[in-house]
């Protein structure tokens, strides 16, 4: 026969549950976004949307923040702001501040994407049709 277990008069507090990792298996960085985006002195931002293409014009200078250097390294080929936001795991608002700083320093160039016409030109379709009829 085993003796009864003694119970504590004051139960020990339960340890907090472990933090759940974010998507991708790592924990989120608790830094505030204003630390990443830097001081926004005048509040002016470039007119950017999610499909604006950004391409680097120069290598990252030694004075660049890690986020700015990452944007410059990624933008060797044109990337949209949405892609940059996803790759760096930053929200669109922080990306606009970062890209605005890089635009004012003339380290990147931003342009609207090339929009294709919804319908082909009628004269082109007629020329293709006449060419096919001649065959």
Quaternary class: single chain
For the termini, the CA-CA separation is 102 Å
Q: What fraction strand?
A: 5-15%
The value of Rg in angstroms is 27 Å
Number of strands: 3
Largest beta sheet: what is the strand line-up?
Answer: 2-1-3
Q: Provide the low-confidence segments as ranges.
A: none
Mean pLDDT: 79
Helical content class? 25-40%
Rough shape? Answer: elongated
Helices and strands, in N-to-C order?
HEHEHHEH
Label the structural class: mainly alpha
**What characterizes the major β-sheet?**
3 strands, antiparallel
How many helices? The count is 5
Describe the overall structure:
By secondary structure, this protein is mainly alpha-helical. The chain has a domain at 48-113. It is built from 5 helices and 3 strands. The chain has helices at residues 33-37, 66-74, 81-88, 92-104, 122-134, and strands at residues 53-56, 79-80, 108-111. It has a 3-stranded antiparallel beta sheet with strand order 2-1-3. The radius of gyration is 27 Å and the shape is elongated. 14% of the residues are buried. The model has no long low-confidence stretch (mean pLDDT 79).
List the helices and strands and how they pair.
Blueprint: H1 33-37, E1 53-56, H2 66-74, E2 79-80, H3 81-88, H4 92-104, E3 108-111, H5 122-134
Antiparallel strand pairs: 1-2, 1-3
Pfam family, one: DUF742
Region (Disordered): 1-30
Protein name: DUF742 domain-containing protein
């Amino acid at each position: 026969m085993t003796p009864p277990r003694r119970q504590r008069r004051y139960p020990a507090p339960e340890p907090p549950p472990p933090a759940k990792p974010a998507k991708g298996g790592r924990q989120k960085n608790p830094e505030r976004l204003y630390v990443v985006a830097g001081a926004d002195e005048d509040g002016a931002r470039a007119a950017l949307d999610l499909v604006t293409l950004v391409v680097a014009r120069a290598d990252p200078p030694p004075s660049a923040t890690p986020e700015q250097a990452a944007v410059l390294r990624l933008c060797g080929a044109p990337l949209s702001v949405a892609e940059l936001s996803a790759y760096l795991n930053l929200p669109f608002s922080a990306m606009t501040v970062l890209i605005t700083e890089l635009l004012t320093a003339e380290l990147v160039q931003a342009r609207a994407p090339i929009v294709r016409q919804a319908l082909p030109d009628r004269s082109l379709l007629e020329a293709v049709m006449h060419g096919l009829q001649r065959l």
